[in-house]
Design goal:
By secondary structure, the chain is of the alpha/beta class. The mean pLDDT is about 90.
């Protein structure tokens, strides 16, 4: 299990001038802790954290925590400003040549990882990407003919599916990466063009901490006892 932890979080400057994005807290714990718990609760035990900006804070956090038995969490410094695909490229030698999972350190969901893995194993393509339909930030006006407004829908789900992280990759994906690769651009586009990328549709809860407003929303959910990504006891 590879987690991309190297980002600066430039749109979270209220928090990330002194800490990396992965260490911004939800309910008093770094969001990275929440992401790890999602995987630990579903029996993942081997993790490789790809660090960058202020990565020593991530390493110190990992070393200071008590983790379940047989859990192995290693940190690999992949550079201050390395893009996402470049970080994976630099980590290739640390992987064992088989399938591996990848996610971001800023996204949480109640995703069923067993179902995701089964889907990936069943289609035999090189890559699986979890896709989600996020809630829109604004209400939507329902329009009729001649501009008549019939009503409003408050923050509906998008009609479009977006990249939600929670990937499964075969080793063949690493061959598409270079040091300057942005995973979400040319590598995924090439996989899609060749028919080697499949979408696992997740219809449950998903959110990412991209802005200060997102951080407030996630903290409020946690404080109110309504955090849907908390699938652990």
């Amino acid at each position: 299990m590879v987690i991309l932890c190297g980002g600066r979080g430039t749109r979270l400057q209220e928090h990330t001038q002194s800490i990396p994005k992965a260490m911004v807290e939800i309910g008093g714990r770094p969001i990275l802790w929440h992401v790890l718990q999602i995987y630990l609760a579903q029996q993942f035990r081997r993790f490789l954290l790809l660090t960058g900006y202020l990565g020593e804070q991530v390493q110190s956090f990992v070393a200071d925590q008590a983790w379940p038995e047989e859990t192995e969490i290693r940190c690999l410094d992949t550079g201050q400003s390395t893009p996402t695909g470049g970080r994976l490229h630099r980590a290739a030698g640390e992987l064992d040549g088989g399938d591996f999972c990848v996610t971001y350190a800023d996204g949480v969901a109640d995703v069923d990882l067993d179902a995701l893995l089964a889907y990936h194993a069943g289609h035999r393509a090189a890559a699986t990407m979890t896709v989600v339909r996020p809630e829109l930030q604004f209400g939507v006006a329902q329009l009729g003919a001649d501009g008549v407004v019939h009503g409003f829908t408050e923050k509906p789900r998008s009609e479009h599916w977006i990249n939600g992280g929670f990937f499964c990759f075969s080793a063949a994906v690493l061959e598409l990466l270079r040091d300057d690769s942005v995973l979400e651009r040319e590598p995924l586009q090439r996989l899609a063009a060749s028919g080697s990328l499949r979408a696992y549709r997740h219809a449950g809860f998903w959110d990412c901490m991209d802005t200060y407003k997102d951080a407030v929303v996630l903290n409020d959910l946690w404080a109110n006892g309504g955090a849907p990504w908390k699938i652990w006891s």
